[in-house]
Amino acid sequence: MMQTSPAVPPPPVLVGRDRELTLLRQQLQAIQGSHRNLVLVAGEAGVGKTALIAAISAEAAAAGYLVLRGDCYDLTTT
What we know:
single chain; mainly alpha; 2 helices
């Protein structure tokens, strides 16, 4: 059973991320039948990880999924 998510801000415009979005959309489809899944997104700083996750999170929330988010502790700000 899907739960409603709190409001998620609109995603940024993505350029050149069709392959990644397709893979993430496939993961969303896979969990529709009660399968659970975890997707980790990693990459160098500034490659667009946050924008990619914002885009797929907005799609998932609009489809009624509960969207949870975790961030790494940023050691550069301490």
